Prior knowledge:
Blueprint: H1 3-33, H2 36-57, H3 63-94, H4 96-116, H5 122-142
Helix pairs in contact: 1-2, 1-3, 2-3, 4-5
Amino acid sequence: MPSGVMDKQAHTKVDAVYRAESRRVFATLIRVLGDFDLAEEAMHDAFTSAVEQWPRDGVPENPRAWLVTAGRFKAIDAMRRRARHDASLAEIAERPDEIDAARAKQSRDQLEKQINAWSGSEEDLALAKTELDRSVVRMQLASR
């Protein structure tokens, strides 16, 4: 059977499963995850995975169980990403001075590279260096 026909059959099956099983998949994910919004997101992610995988791998014997399992794993991944993101934000909030100093140094380094590669007149170069110094002072004042 040509792959185009197989893809169409798999997409038709995903559509049929969505219409017939999405409410049950959603209800199961709410019960398993305990969060309405997370369950909704997980269900949609699971159906997205089905659209991608079923044409390639074939439709599983029990599509609803496959979708619940895929949704649960998608939700776990989302919770882990959020936890890492929240931890990063907390870390950043604890050390704003270090981050501001690092940004100022990075900006200064970039400007110095541009000045070192300068091909303009000496007068323009002096003006650029003055502007660099002013920028550094402004960044330092803003970080206080």
